[in-house]
Amino acid sequence: MDNHFVSKFKVVLLVVATLLSGCSSNSTLPSATLHSSNTININSYKYLIGSGDVLNIFVWRNPEVSGSFVVRPDGMITTSLVEDIKVAGKTPTELARSIEEILATYLRDPIVTVTVENFVGPFSEQIRVIGEAAQPRAINYTQHMTLLDVMIQVGGLTEFADGNDAVLIRIENGQQKQYQVLIDKLLKDGEISANVDMLPGDIIIIPEAWF
Question: Which domains does the chain have, with CATH numbers?
Answer without folding.
Answer: 49-117 (3.30.1950.10), 123-206 (3.10.560.10)
